């Protein structure tokens, strides 16, 4: 029996190509390849798409099974949909008319924490599954679990009101936020976490451990990019892929690069990504750091996913220097698909995905001096590069991951189901 699945994400990768949207969309297509009826709905607002009055739904492409849902107004602190009178009736009609067996939620941003309760009320028979891609429910600071002012990380949910660095909220507001979110999430039948670290954070926060299964994310298989022709040279070309913001550690990487320039190290760093929607202070800081780096750092700007293999073919290493508890960075999976070892911060899900000394190297987060030291070692040690790149393996195929989800869905719909 193939379940009828509605997939909900907090945008569409055509409008916002973040890791969560890309994975949710890839999984949706894998469900279809498994001969399931599936519908993809991405919530959006006027940041990414102009509103079209008269309907809450918009076409995103020629496909009849993908659409956008206009999410109205969203309270980011409380994760609440503040325009329920406009949103709930239209989404209720979609739920009733499409009548899924499973609603697979990938994020509640824009949708609102009220979404699971609405689904349960409208479709009591429907199973609700939610993949936890980050810590947004736990931490109102964009789910980072890091202090916005001093960049200090924390892991315990009870410290959020004191440590996240948001101004203007009282301890009672933090407490009520947590109570309200946990109450709404009680109707979710099963949670999925792509990492053990993220699961542990949610268990600490109050979700029963038996309600969270760990299933790693997958990727559509692609041919690996060829290794760069080094000739008689060294594996000294590093690549950064992704947005440039304070939490991704892009500034840490540029500071490390400046140290390498000062030490006259022979290397190249290729930066793929832009500084988007950041504070003036951070944008100016990045401009200053780029100006200092000189010709060895190449600022290449935004890129299309279709160009990734060609870009990977020009680098020897991929660097993921995030300073927050990343859960399952898409860029690490992409690096492994193309046989590139990864230098990454040894925290959170990054430390699970990259085995230190096996298929990559861990560094202390937010430490430009150590990152520079590791980059220098990597740029001058072809034996190390050969060893680590030889251990790199591609991530799980998205169709195999979809089968893990489908076995779970079938068992939820029919408890007597036994996988072949």
UniProtKB/TrEMBL annotation:
Example of a GO MF term: glycosyltransferase activity
A Pfam family assignment: Glyco_transf_4
Residue span(s) of domain Glycosyltransferase subfamily 4-like N-terminal: 17-218
This protein's UniProt keywords: Transferase
Designated name of the protein: Glycosyl transferase
């Amino acid at each position: 029996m193939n379940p009828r699945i509605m997939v909900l994400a907090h945008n569409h990768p055509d409008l916002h190509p973040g890791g969560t949207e890309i994975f949710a969309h890839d999984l949706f297509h894998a469900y279809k390849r498994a001969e399931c009826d599936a519908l993809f709905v991405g919530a959006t607002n006027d940041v990414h798409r102009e509103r079209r009055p008269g309907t809450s739904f918009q076409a995103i492409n020629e496909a009849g099974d993908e659409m956008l849902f206009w999410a109205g107004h969203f309270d980011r602190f409380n994760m609440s949909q503040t325009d329920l009178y406009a949103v709930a009736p239209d989404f209720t009609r979609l739920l009733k008319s499409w009548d899924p067996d499973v609603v697979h939620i990938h994020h509640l941003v824009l949708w609102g924490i009220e979404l699971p309760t609405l689904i349960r009320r409208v479709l009591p028979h429907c199973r609700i599954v939610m993949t936890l891609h980050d810590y947004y429910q736990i931490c109102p600071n964009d789910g980072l679990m890091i202090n916005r002012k001093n960049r200090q990380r924390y892991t315990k949910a009870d410290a959020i009101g004191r440590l996240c660095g948001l101004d203007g909220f009282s301890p009672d507001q933090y407490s009520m936020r947590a109570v309200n979110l946990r109450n709404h999430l009680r109707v979710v039948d099963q949670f999925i976490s792509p990492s053990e670290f993220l699961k542990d954070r949610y268990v600490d926060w109050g979700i029963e451990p038996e309600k969270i299964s760990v299933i790693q994310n997958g990727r559509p298989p692609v041919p690996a990019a060829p290794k760069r022709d080094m000739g008689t040279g060294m594996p000294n070309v590093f690549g950064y892929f992704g947005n440039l913001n304070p939490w991704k550690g892009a500034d840490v990487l540029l500071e490390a690069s400046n140290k390498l320039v000062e030490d006259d190290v022979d290397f190249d760093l290729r930066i793929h990504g832009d500084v988007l929607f950041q504070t003036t202070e951070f944008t100016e800081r990045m401009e200053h750091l780029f100006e200092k780096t000189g010709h060895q750092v190449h600022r290449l700007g935004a890129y299309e996913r279709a160009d990734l293999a060609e870009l990977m073919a020009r680098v020897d290493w991929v660097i993921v220097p995030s300073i927050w508890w990343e859960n399952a960075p898409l860029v690490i999976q992409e690096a492994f698909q193309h046989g590139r070892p990864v230098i990454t911060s040894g925290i959170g899900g990054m430390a699970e995905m990259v085995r230190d000394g096996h298929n990559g190297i861990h560094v202390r987060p937010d430490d430009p001096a150590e990152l520079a030291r590791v980059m220098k070692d990597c740029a001058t040690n072809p034996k190390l590069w050969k060893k680590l790149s030889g251990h790199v393996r591609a991530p799980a195929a998205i169709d195999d991951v979809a089968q893990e989800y489908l076995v779970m869905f079938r068992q939820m719909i029919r408890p007597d189901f036994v996988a072949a």
